[in-house]
Fold these 4 entries.
Entry 1:
Amino acid sequence: MLNINNWLQANTFHYSQFWDLLRLIKEKEKRGLSISLCIPTLNEEKTIGKEVVLFKSELQDRYPLLDEIAVVESGSTDRTREIAASFGADVYNSADILPDFGFKRGKGENLWKAIYQLQGDIIVYVDADIKNIHPRFVYGLVAPLIHRPEIKYVKAFYDRPLALSNEIRPTGGGRVTEILVRPLFSLFFPELTAIIQPLSGEYAVRREILDRIPFPVGYGVETSHLIDVYSEYGLEAFAQTDLDQRVHRHQETRDLGKMSFGIMRAFFKRLKARGIVTDLPELTSNLRQFQAQENRYEQVIHEIFEEERPPMIEIAAYRKKFGLDQ
Amino acid sequence: MTDMDLEQIIARVNSLVKDLEPYREMLLANVVMIGEIPAPTFGEQERISFLKQRFTECGLHNCSTDELGNGLGVLPGSEGTQTILLAAHADTPFAASEDHAYTINADRISGSGVADNSLSLAVLATLPTILEGLDIRFRNDLLFMGASRSLEQGNQQGLRFLLANSNRPLAAGVSIEGVPLGRLRYRSMASLGGMIACNVNRRVSQKSAIEVLNQIIYQIGCIPLLEESHAGLVLGSVAGGASFKIPARNARLKFQLRSDSDQTLMESKEKVENLLDEVGKEKGVSAHLEVIASTMAGGLDSSHPLVLLTRRVMTTLDLQPRGSIYSATFSPYAEKDIPAVCIGITNGDNVNYPDEYIEIEPILTGVAQLIGILLAIDGGHCVEY
């Protein structure tokens, strides 16, 4: 079964392997590829300015790796839109893209609509809340796609330790990854455990893959991508790049509970669809958490919908825009 | 170049701010990428290495690091008979362990060291690209320098080393600082940055070292020479003791003495040393002076052509020279009798605190000012006859 070790050897990179951006750009041009950057946002005024300035300056003006820098907005109430536009990003309101399909709140919705709105053969998604943003967050992810045509989906992970000895050290993702996603993958999709940080919000994907997979609009989007792409193309379609460190907001455990709930809904849906689990009951959308007030305890019910958008290729407007019916 | 050429330069400066707009994001990106690399004094290597990489990418010649860790690159002029030095210090007072993440919003960039001195280094890193893009050429060579070991104990070792060892004929120097726009400094005061360390031998005395230090501070303030208008004392920082319940065993003061006369400063220093000798006569108490950094008095007169042309360029851009004419940065130039000015690029505040920030909008005016000054120097307008 497992070709994990071979895959880890061949398809795990460190961003520093791609330091020669001129070479990367030449290869991109040779292969006739275009690349779009999508930054999904919701109230990110503290970090969006730096992301746009760095990517535009370094990866458009100085080294023309990116053909498009787009911020896809979920309806921020702060100055996110204004700041992103002032530094040269194309800013789109998610609700204005494919308006006939309505608007659903969630990061996955922005990622899905970006497939329609953006032009690139490769779309690279980078979260907007990264405090230590750097051009490596983009070139480290697109480089394997440029150099290796058989790779279709590149995930980021963040792992470089400050000191190395010869001792074996554990490596892995965050709390939700290690206590939920990797155990689930171990049980049902063992090869996917090789992806060190399956929930990282930074990844680069070829359009012909993105437009063929459904998109949960909420927390389950990354997990479902991995399962769907793996089921169709196998582990060989994936690569992962170590981007060193990512500094971002710390999330409270209760928020991680909501995330886990959304992930499990998307996960079980896929188990059922593949016939791995057959007699699941109808899954509730209510997550129950509890809080104490003086000596009383009360439950708090969070309604978490994990709706899914269909593969973009099924949308007539998309097929028309990209000439897929001809 | 003729006087007419100076008028042409002034006319060019007027249109420069608009011409610089396409380079704004590149400049801001360099501010962030440089500023997020920690560079405490004596630990600037990684930042200098990045700067040198930028110099190389811009096509500067002789991109290198010297023995003191200065980052250097040369933009060759059409004649290259002389060299104009363009320098910015690369170090900051922030430890490597402190947060160096920057934030950009619509009108300002915030972060440790952004004004002092990431912006200036970013100007160095971007200027070659700007000059090429705007087809601005020089007769003389421009030597770009990210200076190491400048602050506090660094005592401007990097700049001093270059000025002492460069075999290039230097026509003039321009040192740039992030803030404020309107800074025009062309003289250095005689100064002495020092640390007074007080120690109490607990076996002999139960006196608190803080009490001893307090007496010293009071007595330094009473030194007659320091009461003169052209001299001054800065009490920079104090530290000492271990707990509120135990008399401090040690205490230290970092301070600076300044004067526009080397003689006055020397006499003041002697008085401080005499004072410490007196303190040390008390049983179990000792106090020592360690000199951290020093500068000598000197520099240009306000009528020097370099000062006049700098004022002229600033006035053209509606900038009003402001603040002191003195800067410690200037001392190494004064020591070598090289005409130089120190200017600022934009406005900002909270310098050397973690909430340090710079304003984005005035930056291009600051860069236009710099280019104007360089063109005027290149045209031979800073030569004193």
Note: The two ends of chain B are 15 Å apart (CA to CA).
Entry 2:
Amino acid sequence: MRVTFRAAYGGIEYVNAAAEQVANARQQMLSGKRLEKASDDPAGMQRAIAGRAELRSIETYTRTSDSALAKLTTLDMVLSGVIEKLQQAQVSAASVRGSIVNQQQRDAAALTLEGLRDSLAADLNTRFRGAHVFGGAEATTPPYARVAGSWVYQGDAVPVSVEIGAGRTVAIALDGQALAQGTDTTNVLNELETLIVAVRAGDNVAIDAGMSALGRAFSRATSTQSQIGVDERSVSETQLQLTSSRLAVLTLVSKDEDADLANAISAMNRADVAYRAALGAVGRASNHSLLDYLR
Amino acid sequence: MSGLFSSLSMAAQSLEAQRAGLDVAGQNIANLNTPGYKRRRLDLAEAVNGIGGVEVLGTRAARDAVLDTRVRTAIPDASREGAILNQLSLVETTIGAPGQGIDGRLSAFFDAFASLSVDPTSTVARDGVVLQGRELASAFNATATRLASSVQLADNGVRDAVGQVNSLSQQIAALNVAIAASGGTDVDALKDRQQLAVEQLSSLTSVAVLARPDGGVDVTIPSGRALVIGGSKYDVSASTGGNGLATLSLGGADITGELTSGTVGGLLYTRDTLIPGYRARLDQLAFGVAQEVNTLHQSGFDLNGNPGTAFFTPPAAVAGAAAAMTVSATVQGNPSLVAASQTGAPGDNQVARALANLRLQPVLSGGTTTFAEGWAQLAYQVGSDVDTARAEQSSLRDVLGQVQKLRDQVSGVSLDEEAASMMKFQRAYEANARFFTAVDSMLQTLMNTVGRG
């Protein structure tokens, strides 16, 4: 075989190829990424995009569940207040039941009940970030308003829920009527109005009826609060699952996207050796020829 | 029987022959780095002039027609893949890293609807939806623009390459004329240039070469249409077609579809097949997003309780949907028109939830693919095409390199060989000079003897 000048002195393409490998390995080490463009690993790119989308979805669920938890905590606190006020109203009504109570005591109890009624109405009209939470989907209108001497529900029965995970929802706004009235003929605020009149009048039969209505409202409130508690726990559990899922997806995405530094260092060393060898081979070719031995 | 004067003549002729040998070695060394140069060999023969000695028959270039043909046919495929790789490397930059391209913008857009579902009465959340909608539309617009720009770059490349084809055809035709005019003598330098020009032409487009009896070559494209016939060349012309792109014609016939290899073939394939394929996928994705979002948005009610309008300006057709994508001007001007409610109640969030969940719905490709998967498929297609072009180019360059090495073994110049050749002819020259001196000395002796007598 004839070894020509081009064969002996060529080889710059090998030097370039080795230099490119060094640059690629160096880039991976600097950026920490093995997937910087689609052609680095097309299938890996496809998986990484799907993984990133899933990651964003999990992060959205996490944010939504944080907001839902804040609303549920508010609902829980308000319901605790409602329950306490219903109990106080029952105690006030019971204290003036019987025949030995004088008018002054009945008036005092009626005033207490009026205060509790107003406070309860305020609770049912609670707003969170500007939206009423006991009016169903009618978030901008106060759920309860006194119209012509009677308390009227202005919300609707549409529950408002949010996704806290794939296929998992929790209510963040409640149907106030289901809480305040349930299957009764009127809502607890109107029941309190009737009870206040009965207390002032010393009408024991009406007081008993009013106390029964308060008892049913109490049951509905405690039941609703229990459901809120279940939802709060569900949100907390879901958040734990989201954290685990996020970690799992992140690990998968990282396998596709991130450089294995040990491998990158090893690859860079190999590329560096190949580069030096190529440089040496090309450089050495120019050192000797027959011309050096001719005199 | 020859005399001393004949010996002197023979020695002088031999000295001339050895000097010619030294010239050939010098010529080869001078052209060590000349592209297309074929090493020359000196043909010597025993003289048949009656007095003996050596005769220079001439010099020949070391050519191997088979290997020359193999090199010429290997060039276009490697060039084609190189052109595809160069163009797609630019296209690839439009895809970006995972989560940083349109996929990231899609996620942010649907995130904004998720935030709105938590606070359906919030005007701030509505502003966020409109903002992210605009960002998404901008991302689609920018990607469509970059792909359109890549098509234009490939087209510019085609036009440049056509100019080079015509220039090389001109060179080959001129060389044909010069070779024919030389009458077959001292044509090796011209033939080297001719072959180099043909190989450069092959890197632009595959060509068929037919040798002419006068030493010239006729060159045609694979379909048989002539680029060069003897001293005549036929220009490829690039005219702008209805789509604004170059249409190539030769001899009045449209040859755009006939040039499938070489740089021109690679550029045309990228311009007419690969990038339009990516644009079609992008348009389908944009059309799907606009259509699905609009359908859900129009099924709801805005913050004022009025029926929802189209969120994105409805695309007229799939083609061009990415470039034309924009958030409806009325929604941009009044974010309270963003529909989140299904019932009309301001606190209802069912439409916002449905829109947020759209990211998980397989709505593309006949209900089998999500938007993120649609983008991932486009990214995969681009990455895979670049990867394939790179592997093909590498493989074809290796093949070309191997064939070039084989040819180089026949036609290339070896410095060691030339050094040995120099020494050989130098020594032969010295020996012949010594012979010349000896004969001259004998003549002197004879002359002196005759003179004394």
Note: The longest strand of chain A covers residues 160-165.
Entry 3:
Amino acid sequence: MADELSGLDTFPKLLMHHAKVRGARPAIREKDLGIWQTWTWSEFADEARCLAAGLAAQGLQRGSHIVLISDNRPRLYAMMAAAQCLGAIPVPLYQDAVATEMAFPIQNAQIAFAFAEDQEQVDKLLEILPQCPTLKRIYYDDPRGMRRYAQPELMAYDKLLELGRESHRRDPAYVETEIARGAAGDTAGMFFTSGTTGVAKGVVHTHASLLGPSLTAARMEHLGERDVILAYLPPAWIGQNIFSCAQAFVTGYCICCPESAETVMTDMREIGPTYYFAPPRVLENLLTQVSIRMEDASSVKRWLYRFFMGVANRVGGAILDGKRVGFLERILYWIGDLLVYGPLRNVLGMSRVKVGYTAGEAIGPDLFRFYRSIGINLKQLYGSTETAVFVCIQPDGQVKADTAGPAVPGVELKFSPERELLIRSPGLFREYYRNPEATLQAKDTQGWFHTGDAGYFDPDGHVKIIDRVKDVGALADGTLFAPKYLENKLKFFSYIRETVCFGHQRDKVCAFINIDPDAVGNWAEKRNMPYSGYTDLASRDEVYDLVRECVERVNADLAAEPEIAGSQIHRFLILHKELEADDGELTRTRKVRRGFIGEKYQSLLEALYSPQTTVHVSAQVRYEDGRTGTYSADLKIRDARTFPPAAAKRAA
Amino acid sequence: MILSVEGVSLAFGGVRALQEVSFDVKEHEIRAIIGPNGAGKSSMLNVLNGVYHPQKGTIRFKDKLFHDMDSHQAAELGIARTFQNIALFKGMSVLDNIMTGRNLKMRCNFLQQALWVGAARREEIEHRRAVEEIIDFLEIQHIRKTPVGRLPYGLQKRVELGRALAAEPTVLLLDEPMAGMNLEEKRDMCRFILDVNEHYGTTIVLIEHDMGVVMDISDRVVVLDYGRKIADGSPADVRGNQAVIDAYLGVAH
């Protein structure tokens, strides 16, 4: 494979190579009108070539940027490839971002070109047009609803393609020459970080930094042209870009675009991807659905499920790791595979998964073990936008629930005295766009990237991340306080959706809780407990008791770990509303913004640290029918039992 | 003028549902019929697609004059409708329900269909494509194979609209398409009605109670009260009409 790719150091060169070598193999599929439609590599290359000619005719220059706002669609990937053919830089943006969030990237890079999927995205761009005078051209894919749009900036994708075909006919060598001019060190893409830490920054990656690690990881997992992936996460997130562009371009595997966000489950079952990525939250939702459906199944099925999941729990992981397992257990597992695990994998659409990754957040050990025990090779990896994803990957046979794995070949890792993880790798970004100050802060003069993540190496040399360095704090008495670590432990309970822990420089740890409306709703239904909605459910005494049990189990767990036994959760309350990205409480990738929440709910926080047992709250809420109203009530505050470190074993 | 109704009267025994009602529908417009409960709106719609047969009056459709319509004939002429209280096959999937809307366009006989060879096969593929286009249009891909009975009300209404569209009608009669929906579902439905009107060029006659919706999306409105037409004109005209205000708010006798 190494020989096959020599000299192919940019995305477009690879694309043209695949068109030559495996021109008839599928490159990208999309379900259109209920039928999977395929572009072969040669069709993909042809589309990109013509688009490139069209974009060139429209004035897109080498080194300039083009914004792309679209779901995963073949045409989105063709536009990206086309821009790269000309040496222009694709800048994918999150499709669920509101218009004002899109203005910054466009202003920041003075972008003139944009590609939007449909009317919804076009409307957003038109809305910010006055603030973005540089924006001159907007191409759109789906013309529906835009018949009366007459803005001079707009042009349909089909029109652009037609222009391109004509221009390509006139000068067939032009695009090839432009592709040949590209070099590994050129910028290949720019990704805006989600903004956990304030203003979004454009992370600039070169062809080398995206393709290098992608190739290393692909070799490690033996990925090839016969592999298939379902592209269902936002293209603006670097991970999706790596999985559905960079890695597809180095291996020649096939990318499948689901019909819509709601059909992902069905599409996954139809496609049967062999390579899979899912953040823990997606895996958790899947498991919740399975559990809910199992609870409603007949008693025979429930018994079978419980019995064989017990078997899987004991030996499934070991079998997957190739360890020695007793003969009888093997037979039982085999029967279980026939009756339970196989059908379950099929329902999940994971029958063919050769390797699946999860990353982004800590994953619950039970959740992780569940997937591995039914024979799905799920592994953890560690990476970020700045490192082009692949920093640590757990190799086959060395998979653990609580680590990120050892460094990928070619990556150097070390921890600073403050326990911050530092990285040097070929996948490091070049810079933050037009932000040399931030670049210097993140990447020191020796080329070490400061991740901001705190952790340590475990005895096997795996990296273990506990929290963000800046969030690791201390209680007033100096006890180590890693809020994320606590929050994750709480979130591993299916009843708890989100939680925010406070305790830095205070005398004890207290928490805000968001219950999971599906899981708790189902639990309430089983108990014939009527409720009118989230807010009502969250204020029930029974639900408080349920949550208190979870908190106390976490406390018992913590008591067993000497360094953090002091950071057990003393008091908690259940928030009256779900934390939302739209309200700024979560980032777009659904991470809690602790500082912001602390300020927004100042009064609740103060109440937690006072002897009060209720706190009054009045807030605007939005009902499901779109009306808004004011919610005003007394939230309850409950104490949770804490355990002295010595008593931990017995209580747990 | 694609459709015009002249002097239609309909009575059930002593109950006079419609009395001398006349109005017309222009090609490609969205025409609303409004009125208080029992004003005769649904009866009017039922006359238009041949469910009820008026005792008096004529209906002119595409320059052909009818004394009364026969519902089969109406469907063949290109008049499709949805119902106030959803009339779908609950146990069948969304796809199959919409497929039934293509019933009149199927040419193969029972035997051919059962064997699924030759023409029947080609035909089904062709119809399936048309149905898929409607599914795509109404954004219901995710429930394609779900039995209709399991869907929430708002989606069932959308499926019913899909079935009516499958007949590729020139005139679409919608009987309270938004009844019982929440705000978001209403908004979606409005968007779909406008899209149908624009994209397929379908003429739409709709009955609706939500005045906001009627005023927003319709080109012209006809108002009925106790079986009589009391006003006819643009939404703005109708809104200001004293007779309409009296009919809706009641008036001292």
Note: Chain B touches chain A through 18 residues (CB under 8 Å).
Entry 4:
Amino acid sequence: MQVSMTVNGEEFTREIEGRLLLVHFLRDHLGLTGTHWGCDTSNCGTCVVWLDGEPVKSCTVLAAMAGGHEVRTVEGLEQGGQLDPIQQGFMACHGLQCGFCTPGMLMTTRALLDRDPNPSESDIREAISGQICRCTGYATIVRSVQWAAAEQAGTRTSVVTGSPS
Amino acid sequence: MTALVDPPVTEFEDNDQKPMGHGRMLRKEDPRFIRGRGHYVDDLQLKGMLHLAILRSPMAHGRIVSVDISAASAHPKVKLVVTGAMLAEQGLAWMPTLSNDVQAVLATDKVRFQGQEVAFVVAEDRYSARDALELIDVEYEQLEAVVDVRKALDPSAPIIRDDLDGKADNHCFDWQTGDEAATEAVFASADVVVSQDIVYPRVHPAPMETCGAVADYDGIEGKLTLYSTTQAPHAHRTLYAIVAGLPEHKIRIVAGDIGGGFGNKVPIYPGYVCAIVGSLLTGKPVKWVEDRSENLISTGFARDYIMRGEIAATKEGKILAIRTNVLADHGAFNGTAAPVKYPAGFFGVFTGSYDIQAAFCKMTAVYTNKAPGGVAYACSFRITEAVYLVERIVACLADELNMDPVELRIKNFIQPEQFPYTTKTGWVYDSGDYEPTMREAMRIAGYDELRREQAEKRERGELMGIGVAFFTEAVGAGPRKDMDILGLGMADGCELRIHPTGKAVVRVSCMSQGQGHETTFAQIIAEEIGIPPADIQVVNGDTDQTPFGLGTYGSRSTPVSGAAAALVARKVRDKAQIIASGMLEVSVVDLEWDKGSFRVKGDPTKSVTIQEIAMRAHGAGDLPQGVEGGLEAQICYNPENLTYPHGAYICVVDIDPGTAQVKVRRFIAVDDCGTRINPMIIEGQVHGGLTDGVGMALMEMIAFDEDGNCLGGSLMDYLIPTALEVPDWETGFTVTPSPHHPIGAKGVGESATVGSPPAVVNAVIDALKPFGVRHADMPLTPSRVWDAMNGNAKPPI
């Protein structure tokens, strides 16, 4: 079957099998390998992309279901050579180590900040609770999102990365 | 020697000011990761690449009666189907494990665990390969499975390893350490003896990226390139040369970016070998990437120790001796990754951080019908099990003596003046100063206030627990006189080249799985030679480009490769000094190093920078007599001893008396990993390990049913902590440099995974004190805590 969708603002049309998962369509057919495949069961969230602005787990969405819709992936976060504040936040606060969960975390938390520009720590933890990171222990991810929120609001002055002690 | 330093309170702006060496610095690898531009193995798309999928055993134990591949072979998109019998014809059906056992690449005679590799398919695309697996018809004769490790040595137990000549039982190995008679004598006369059965259940590292490989055999060059998820590229290259009979100079291993390892990516798995065979037979690149279920059911598990711990003490709380008996489940093949002379890894450090009179351990390891592995999940070669044992049994002793667990520990710590300290099991702890580390953790926690709060809450019937753990690790394997893996000594090479313009490339043998080596190693070199980290490229993971070394696991990168990096930089600096003496026309001894330049003693106006020296080394004009051109060096570092990081952890939990749900409210971790290279990265390593520890203590377990079916085969069944199950970590540190490491660093990658499980469990047991609970095994899920509260605490296996 033929499927057409907009990915990061660009129109793509491809001949695919009906059973093809969106994650494999993005990775294998479009070469957008920033979106990762981690568990098949919607538990790990390494595959999170946006479908019409909403984060979805692309390992449990058929590529055909995205036909006619707009998809945004981690490759679409940087605009005009300018990193998104959430990308800057993850770098600034050591919100990543191996980088495998990072694209999914970035897409989920970018959506969170669009919905709520000033989330509390528990809001952030709740937002990423459908995703797993084995490296960071999450605290630095929380700080990364807080950093990005402050950066966007123009209130980032002296956010501390060190231990709270 | 220990310095208590306030944690650096650094603003983000400061992070952008790249230090010239050690210090908080943002990571060089992050710009690609936050753009989704990492280079993981599954991202590779080579021209003409085919896809491989593996058919796995549906049962734990069975005889293969027949394998019919005709329908699969007829699938229009299938290029190749291979069975164990076909591999056997090439002598490739079995491969050596890292513990001198053998493991089936594809089963020929029997399947010995659920998920074992039986056949593979190579097809044009990922989905067709999977489709064709359904077309392979395997007839099995199901056999009784050995699942209960306690019954593995029963005379009536079915024999798993009948592939081994004359094997008539499921015995894997016996091992012991310490002095049995001396220990017994101490126990016989001690005031107080406490015994406790303690199970450390089977868990799995489950890195977010599963294992995979792309094999690309070039038939004209006769060269195999294997892109694979390996924590030990050089060791793998040598083993492939031995297994597949390929000449080693015609094998190139490329590890790329690895999406987490934690020990899971140390062994050679059948899938890698299958990919190589697939490429050899088709002449095309072949990709194999396992799915999550395959990763959980077939690759390196961790722990699975059934332990009995005994501790002898005076009634005043002086610990006299520790004794343990261990039954170890090694699965169907002994795939333990540990130095050859250490079949139980470094479990011998079970005497912990305490100055005692005697110790003894006796271990029996057995085969069962479960996946092979044993040393994985950031365990520092079984130190997780050792530390869990000693810290639980010390907690039991504190309970018995009605002593505060901190007071008991401090009373028994090895004292700073006793280092280097030889334990009763023969380990030489290089350095340590334990009490300041413990007191720093108490300060951050507000320990006395927590105890007051707990007393008040107990009055009200609320369940609050405070758990304490103190660990000493032995990392950085290791001295080649004692340590090798399959005959390969555990020394690490490092090569440093300074280009004419003063920019540098350092090639290391270890392999990052997310630890940030590109940053840390640039900082180590920068500290030694004064070239900014931004001007230093770190190369790792490609065996054609890096010197030989044994890879990254057991927290060995900084202790071994980090030492190599510092020493190779000093070697280059020594040469630079000679060249500088010619440039400044003074004697070498009249020069002093000022981080980045040599200057004439007493005349600071006369100096040359390392960049100027580099240009001279490669440029025109004479060099001092006997000095070759160029500015580069290579070394191989053989560690004199292991390094011994330590740490004090305090965990605070609240338990809902109605649901028995454990909530980790606070976790305080004070680590002493010696000299700190990048505090941000160290903190990240600690945070990750603490999360592992909470997971193992409260959630994670690979369980089996009575037939040997794995019950933890997906992330719906094998529970890993999310952001909701863990608190905001509170960290601190002390610094006790290693006396034998060139920069005093000790390694920190696994400290928190080692130290946190006993802290969490001790906290839960402390909370359950009103119920008279002295011990309950991990994982402390609500149902298991509920059972403990009701006097029904049971081992998980």
Note: Confidence is low (pLDDT under 50) at residues 1-17 of chain B.
